[in-house]
Automatic annotation (TrEMBL):
Residues 60-250 form the PNPLA domain. GO terms for biological process: lipid catabolic process. Residues 413-434 have a biased composition (Low complexity). It comes from the Eukaryota. Its EC number is 3.1.1.-. It comes from Cinchona calisaya. One of its GO terms (molecular function) is hydrolase activity. This is Patatin. Belongs to the patatin family.
Length: 434
């Protein structure tokens, strides 16, 4: 039987048994013609195969920084309010407008709060609720330890109790979108990414969200096991592994063709990267503790990622990539001093953190230029968030009205019949390729 007859007969059979809408018809036609009979000859199908498929939207959130996660939390609260206002949906959530979230340290906690599915099918926290939780517990998320930062001990009981209360038995499989949360595994001596995609398709990769959050903020090694008991690790915080997980998120998308089949390069991405304030230079010069050096190293690594990603976007870095970060705020020094004080004053410190984060949002965004330092942008951090909120809504509306192929096909089942892709942790070696 001729190829065209097979195609017509097959589609006719489908029409007899299923209610095939236009999008399904186009997807089936393209796949059938491309993989069974070569590239489509029909001009309509060729146009559909080459039609724009939208952009993959990535949210990346740094580790605690000088604000213990408050700057990113306030940025997200402002972004969610902007999305609700501009979309006209009072119940809109951050997770509705992103396809991928990567968060390290306190950023990993925010990712878990905003992208884990509750009983009603919606995220368990709004951005405003997440901000309140971060403010109430800021000192627990990235508080330096004066000695033995990598000592092998269990996580603090208070943080463990908090995460168990928030997440219960929910695991990576219960997240709504592609979630990536890093830690450093002392067992293998390598960074590890807790990944929703890996949890759904690979043994030994699903972990409880409470334990994932505990691992990514751990300033001392913690032990955890996967839900099936196949994998065991000794983890320290994501801020040690990758303070700024933006590059890891981009690499995950570009390598994961099962969930992002039409994403080829940065032109197909919209990336929002949220910092949490850099360590004050004056304070760092007066603090020679190991924890201070680790913070300096984390800030430097985060800046390098920002510079490299910004250069990778090239001319698109003003339209497809935005970095929110706080710099040079008077008062950060007092935070660093307070954090190293054994008499932790949560109430006064949280008021200071909140005020400083507000000042950082009102700053003009400082942009990195590869190997050339930094320059002051024309827009403030708040203006940047406002602008990109509009871009996220445009993409959302485009997807509602477009009949072309979807840019994201997230896994929904626990196992896939197709060959598993590479683990997210192994794709880190390909970062230099992009």
């Amino acid at each position: 039987m001729a190829a065209a007859e097979v195609s017509t007969t097959t589609l006719s059979m489908l029409d007899d048994h299923f209610d095939v809408d236009k999008l399904t018809y186009e997807i089936f036609s393209i796949l059938e013609n491309k993989f069974l009979f070569g590239y489509p000859k029909d001009q309509h199908l060729m146009h559909a195969a080459n039609a724009p498929s939208g952009k993959v939207r990535i949210l990346s959130i740094d580790a605690g920084g000088s604000t213990d996660g408050v700057l990113a939390a306030k940025s997200l609260a402002h972004l969610e309010a902007t999305l609700r206002r501009k979309s006209g949906n009072p119940d809109a959530r951050v997770a509705d407008f992103f396809d991928v979230v990567a968060g390290a340290g306190a950023g990993g906690i925010l990712a878990g709060l905003l992208f884990t599915r509750g009983k009603d099918g919606r995220p368990i926290f709004t951005a405003e609720e997440a901000l309140k939780l971060v403010l109430q517990n800021a000192g627990k998320f990235s508080r330096p330890v004066p000695t033995g930062i990598l000592r092998r001990v269990f996580r603090p009981a208070k943080a463990e109790k908090l995460f168990n209360k928030v997440f219960g038995e929910l695991s990576l499989k219960d997240t709504l979108k592609a979630v990536l949360i890093p830690c450093y595994d002392l067992t293998t001596g390598a960074p590890f990414l807790f990944s929703r995609a890996d949890a759904l398709e690979m043994d030994g990769c699903d972990f409880k969200m409470a334990e994932v959050c505990g691992a990514t903020i751990a300033n001392r090694a913690v032990e955890l096991r996967s839900n099936d008991g196949r994998k065991k690790m000794a983890a320290v915080g994501g801020g040690v592994a990758m303070n700024n997980p933006t590059a890891a998120a981009i690499t995950h998308v570009l390598n994961n063709k099962q969930e992002f089949p039409f994403c080829k390069n940065v032109e197909d991405l919209i990336v929002v990267s949220l910092g949490n304030g850099e360590m004050d230079c004056v304070a760092s010069n007066q603090d020679s503790t190991p924890s201070a050096y680790i913070r300096i190293a984390g800030d430097g690594a985060a800046d390098m990622v920002d510079q490299a990603v910004s250069m990778a976007f090239g001319k698109l870095r003003t339209s497809n990539y935005v970095r929110i970060q706080g710099n040079g705020i008077v008062g950060k020094r007092s935070i660093n001093i307070t954090n190293t004080n054994n008499n932790w004053d949560e109430k006064s410190n949280n008021v200071t953190l909140d005020a400083i984060a507000n000042k950082m949002l009102a700053q003009k965004n400082v942009e990195s230029v590869l190997f050339q330092g930094k320059k002051l942008a024309e827009s403030t951090n708040l203006e940047k968030l406002e602008c990109f909120g509009g871009e996220l809504i445009k993409e959302q509306e485009w997807r509602k009205t477009s009949c072309v192929l979807p840019p994201v096909i997230l896994k929904q089942s626990s196992l896939s019949s197709s060959p598993p892709r590479s683990s997210s942790a192994t794709t880190l070696s390909t970062l230099s390729s992009y």
